[in-house]
């Protein structure tokens, strides 16, 4: 465009980038989208007061909409006080008051909710089985005797521990006795409990790149942490041995975020390292249930239950807001961990436990896992297909599993900073791999951790189209390559 919305103050983003979603909206919604986009941009400060907007003809040509649509939007926003017409030609952005403390732009680049959110971490909360959950709640409450409402065993209700032990043995190959299993508030509390118990025994090694809460939780619990690089097979043993750590937290079924699986040789090496140092491996099995190309690989814990503490939760399979998880610990740590749990909260809420025990024992949890597996497999396929259509040359790496994928964009999408700014301006929320620690790859290509599970196939396609347009792409020949995560 000849005049991309001049930015006299040097602030703001060219208008066409802020409004990239308009052209992809249904024709009858375009006027509203354009007005809302402009209003948002002024409110958030992305279009700074004093900015001259492009002529209506130019903006219309850039957005691929009629000139009348742009003229009407300018008139409407002028009437509302967001824009003003200058003497002679030209439309200018007015200075408007923003609420005290409100930043100019809120990080998604548009001053509002992102249009498309690819940030990883959340399952599809609409898949939460409300009816089955409510029925389990009713049954659990009816069956709970009055004395069952007292303080619970800090390990958890025996019926839930038994149900979970059977489930984890059957589905994940965990070697577990109900007495060794502790019910807790998600993986987060499991790591905090272990962190407190491991205090004073040296730093805990965390994967780099890895899950930021691993580092944060162990640090908050008072153990130091040390980042150890991950290669195409998991934690690098040489670096781990040199780190001074005697404990390490790992995601062997589906490394977060790179998406690789720890192969048998690396599993054996890790266990040998832990045995030699009288150390501990902490296995975070956060999404190990969801594998789309074959049966999930069993838990590392099954190979040596005395060297591996195993943890998981319902945060990916049901909802993170339930704050419900489990921890299986080696015999030597059991007493201390249970006592820490007791001191932390006097036990997990009983009704939640009774309900979940019913939910697991009645087979509803297995049903939910199958339902999620089908939905997430379909969404991953939709993501791969949309990439092929809208970002030809993009490479999807890591195994077909879980709720996110690593996507390496072709060189032409770089540099990363510019690409992310354009995506944010178009309302697409993204997390690059560099947000998760580890060294930036030498090839300089943009690598994204794309969460897809919470988006339907249609939303995935729309978001990818938006992203591709924001990056200045026009659709090319369908082509997507697969490869291993680079070491
Ligand atoms: C690597 C990893 N571990 C664990 C969790 C879940 O933690 P919690 O069970 O405390 O919700 C997540 C959630 O996003 C995660 O990404």
Automatic annotation (TrEMBL):
- InterPro entries membership: Aminotransferase_I/II_large (IPR004839), HTH_trans_reg/aminotransferase (IPR051446), PyrdxlP-dep_Trfase (IPR015424), PyrdxlP-dep_Trfase_major (IPR015421), Tscrpt_reg_HTH_GntR (IPR000524), WH-like_DNA-bd_sf (IPR036388), WH_DNA-bd_sf (IPR036390)
Keyword tags? Aminotransferase, DNA-binding, Pyridoxal phosphate, Transcription, Transcription regulation, Transferase
Q: Which Gene3D superfamilies would you find in this protein's record?
A: Type I PLP-dependent aspartate aminotransferase-like (Major domain) (3.40.640.10), Winged helix-like DNA-binding domain superfamily/Winged helix DNA-binding domain (1.10.10.10)
Sequence ranges assigned to domain HTH gntR-type in this UniProt record: 28-96
Q: Which SMART domains match?
A: HTH_GNTR
Q: Which residue windows are transmembrane per the record?
A: none
Q: What Pfam family is a match, any one?
A: Aminotran_1_2
Family annotation (SUPFAM superfamilies): PLP-dependent transferases, Winged helix' DNA-binding domain
Single annotated GO MF: transaminase activity
What does the similarity note say?
A: In the C-terminal section; belongs to the class-I pyridoxal-phosphate-dependent aminotransferase family.
Record's protein name: PLP-dependent aminotransferase family protein
Q: Supply the source organism for this entry.
A: Streptomyces litchfieldiae
């Amino acid at each position: 465009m000849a005049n991309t919305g001049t930015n006299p103050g040097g602030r703001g983003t060219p208008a066409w980038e802020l409004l990239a979603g308009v052209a992809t909206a249904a024709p009858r919604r375009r006027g509203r989208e354009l007005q809302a986009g402009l209003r948002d941009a002024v409110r958030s400060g992305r279009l700074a007061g004093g900015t001259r907007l492009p002529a209506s003809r130019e903006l219309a040509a850039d957005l691929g909409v009629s000139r009348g649509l742009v003229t009407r939007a300018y008139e409407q926003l002028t009437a509302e006080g967001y824009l003003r017409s200058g003497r002679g030609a030209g439309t200018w952005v007015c200075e408007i008051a923003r609420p005290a403390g409100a930043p100019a732009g809120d990080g998604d680049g548009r001053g509002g909710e992102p249009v498309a959110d690819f940030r990883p971490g959340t399952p599809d909360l609409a898949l939460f089985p409300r009816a089955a959950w409510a029925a389990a709640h009713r049954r659990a409450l009816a069956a709970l005797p009055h004395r069952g409402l007292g303080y619970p065993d800090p390990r958890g209700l025996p019926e839930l521990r038994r149900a979970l032990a059977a489930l984890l043995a059957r589905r994940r190959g965990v070697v577990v006795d109900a007495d060794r299993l502790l019910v807790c508030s998600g993986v987060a509390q499991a790591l905090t409990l272990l962190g407190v118990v491991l205090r004073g025994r040296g730093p805990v090694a965390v994967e780099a790149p890895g899950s930021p809460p691993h580092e944060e939780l162990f640090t908050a619990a008072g153990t130091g942490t040390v980042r150890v690089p991950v290669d195409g097979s998991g934690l690098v043993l040489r670096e781990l041995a040199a780190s001074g750590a005697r404990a390490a937290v790992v995601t062997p079924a589906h490394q977060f975020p790179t998406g690789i699986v720890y192969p048998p040789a690396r599993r054996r090496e890790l266990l040998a390292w832990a045995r030699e140092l009288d150390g501990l491996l902490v296995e975070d099995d956060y999404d190990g249930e969801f594998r789309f190309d074959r049966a999930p690989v069993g838990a590392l814990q099954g190979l040596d239950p005395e060297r591996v503490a195993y943890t998981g939760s319902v945060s990916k399979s049901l909802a993170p807001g339930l704050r419900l998880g489990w921890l299986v610990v080696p015999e030597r740590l059991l007493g201390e961990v249970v006592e820490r749990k007791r001191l932390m909260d006097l036990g997990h809420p009983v009704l939640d436990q009774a309900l979940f025990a019913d939910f697991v024992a009645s087979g509803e949890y297995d049903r939910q896992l199958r339902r999620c597996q089908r939905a997430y497999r379909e969404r991953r396929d939709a993501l791969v297909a949309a990439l092929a259509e809208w970002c030809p040359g993009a490479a999807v790496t890591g195994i077909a599993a879980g709720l996110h994928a690593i996507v390496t964009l072709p060189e032409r999408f770089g540099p990363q900073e510019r690409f992310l700014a354009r995506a944010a301006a178009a309302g697409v929320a993204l997390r690059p791999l560099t947000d998760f620690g580890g060294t930036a790859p030498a090839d300089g290509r943009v690598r994204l951790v794309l969460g897809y599970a919470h988006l339907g196939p249609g939303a995935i396609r729309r978001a990818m189209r938006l992203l591709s347009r924001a990056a200045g792409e026009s659709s090319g020949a369908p082509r997507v390559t697969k490869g291993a995560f680079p070491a």
